[in-house]
Amino acid sequence: MIHYSSQEAARRLGISASALGNYVRDKKIPSPQSVTTGGITVYLWTEEEIEHVRELLPKIANGRKTRYEKLREKKKDAQPKAVPHKSRKPKKK
Question: What is the pLDDT of residue 12?
Fold first, then answer.
């Protein structure tokens, strides 16, 4: 079985390695097998795990932006109201 580093897995997924690490840290995606050597944790990704993450990415890709999508849709649907303007008086010379 072939194992990939986080850098290689991120390259295959089309995202940055730091984004992949953040998703694992925030538990947005399941963490793969890890090996700790000298205080450094290295994740070993299999092809199946990379494909599983590829399926999960569209759900988490926008992060915080997805929270406000409904509000944006409501604002788009709402008709803007006409704002009354005051007429300008000519300035006295």
Answer: 93
Close Cβ partners of 57 (under 8 Å, ≥ 6 residues apart): 13, 15
Share of the chain above pLDDT 90, in %: 37
- Output the CA–CA distances (angstroms, integers) from residue 7 to 16, 27, 44, 45, in the order listed: 8, 18, 10, 10
pLDDT surpasses 60 at 81 = yes
Residues in the chain: 93
Q: Specify whether the CB–CB gap between 32 and 41 falls below 8 A.
A: no
d(CA 15, CA 29): 14
Closest CA to 43 of 29, 56, 24: 24
pTM of the shown model = 0.62
39: left (phi over 0), alpha (psi -120 to 50) or beta: left
Q: And the tokens for 6?
A: 């986080």
